[in-house]
Amino acid sequence: MVKKRGAGPDFEKSLQELEKLVEKMEQGDLGLEESLQAFERGIQLTRTCQQALGAAEQKVQQLLEQSDDADAVPFHDDDS
Q1: Where do the domains of the chain lie?
Q2: Which residues of 55-71 are buried (b: 16+ CB within 10 A; e: fewer)?
Q3: What tens digit of pLDDT does each residue of 1-50 get?
């Protein structure tokens, strides 16, 4: 059985591992098999992060719905 978790330590740990993995892949020193394994792990980490962010977003939405005077405003990254 899989536990549901928020965007806490697991998110931070997964994001940190993903960043290190990307740095390693960008160096270009991996062989084909290692690159494929790293890519597969990267996909897993990305999914973990997306799930954690989705759960956090859902929690925020629930909290906003419970508050009459709070308005939800979409977050947009200006760097996009």
Answers
A1: 9-65
A2: beeeeeeeeeeeeeeee
A3: 344 545 567 899 999 999 999 999 999 999 999 999 999 999 999 999 99
